[in-house]
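Hi F.,

I've been meaning to write this up properly since the lab meeting, where we talked about keeping a consistent format for the predictions we share between groups. The idea is simple: the sequence comes first, exactly as it goes in, then the structure tokens exactly as they come out, then a line or two of notes. No screenshots and no reformatting. I'm using this chain as the first example so we have something concrete to point to.
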Amino acid sequence: MSEPQFHRSAKSNLGNKILSTVFLLSLAGAQAQTYPDIAGKVVFGYQGWFACPGGAGFGSNWTHWSNGAPTGTNMQIDFYPDVTEFPASQLCLTSMTIQGQPAYLYSPQTAAIVDRHFQWMQTYGLDGVLLQRFLADIPGKISTGDTVLKNVKNGANNHGRGFAIEYDISGVAANNILSQIQTDWIYLVDQMRVTTQPSYFHHNGLPVVAIWGFGINDGAHTATPAITQSIIQWFHRGAAPQYRAVFLGGVASWWRSLTNDAYTDPAWNAVYDSMDIVQPWNVGRYNSIATADNWLTINMTPDNTRTQSVGHAYQPVIFPGFSWHNLTGTGALNQIPRLSGRFVWEQAINAKRSGAPMLKIAMFDEVNEGTAMFKAAPRRRNAPDQGTWVTFDADGDTTMASDWYLRMGGVITQMFHGNIPITAAIPIRPTDPFVGVEARTLRNSAPGLSLSRTGGGILFTGADPGGEIRIVDLQGRQVRKLRSGFNGALWDGMDESGRRLPQGVYYAQLAGKSGDRFSIGTLPFAWMGK
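Output, unedited:
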């Protein structure tokens, strides 16, 4: 079969408190540092590669936004980010307008921007990110203080999300890849201390390092099987113990069959089997629900079977849609329609059905190729008056708000975690009230208590039938008492007198029998109203 070949290598040619309190409480009393395990997680790629002029912390140009100062006719993005939550002092003013008012863009070199992104991840229940780190761009990043990486570290720590480094080897000469990775990884471990951050993803007791671009037969990814194997072996055995890591390899979508976008050399088979986690790049390899379903049969399920056969893990990549019209000047606008979320939901349930133990969604902030899942303009009137844009209503549904795909990411995460069932239809609608969830339990929590969003409020499950669940505000005041049934306990956002409670962080306290001991466990969550 044929499919559009959208490769990430195109990207390298662009030019290159409430919630922190919850996380800190979760670390209180710890005897030894523990880290989030990437197993079972749904992670998002985080580019963080934008810049804009505006003084200290912003950058010096309009990198990845536009060719020169943005005018609408020179954009490199198809989706316009929703920046209405940010004050103008944190943004860069453009000459464009939105309904006659000034239009702004942002720089992730501004700490408050990245922190808000991670607050969104917490509010919508997303597990975390793989921070993209292009080898070709590393000297420039280090020379300017690696500001975006520092912001991501802080944002993840502040909001209890996970992160890990994902290198991209696009365009780097094969013989230089290992030495460049070694030098930078030692710097990241020793000086940036990424692997000892409480939010850094680990697996089987070791930090995770992802490296993208192996086995892709497109001329921009030239690592041979021998060079790739030497990189894997360095992380497994050759490096000093403090630098060793679980190896996550980003590979061609047809890696297993050595066809289509993959190199055909059979020596790659042993290389792929040496990777602890295999992550095939599926973006653009199918373009409809029917072809996504076919991908499950011919690729996802057998891919997972192959990795399981050698005792390793599979992390498929899914995406909400695709559009790079402004970036390339030739690609069709809205080239792969999002179908109001149905396209990414079908891929997500297919990944779950395949047995994949973890998942990556491309991407959190990738507006250049139109795969962003963060807040973006939902309707044409919310994007700049100048220029050509794809907005969420491109497929005819005008009911979606700018956070619709963050909400989608939340339900995909809940489904992948097993907290809600696999259903053919998306389990939420754009018109449903949103209930934000923060499901990080404290260290003294009773095991098993969990929550999920429903149309009627928040459903608490895991308590014994008859168990008591108390809803408590940040001041420690009990605002509601629930009694768990066989199917859990539903909270509708009301206090005992039937008054709707304001948005904010609350705690669910579970009281019940645990063996011969009476225990109380605590689960913090964010109630965003109905």
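Notes:
The CA atoms of residues 174 and 227 lie 7 Å apart.
Confidence is low (pLDDT under 50) at residues 1-31, 437-446, 513-521.

If this format works for you, I'll send the rest the same way.

G.
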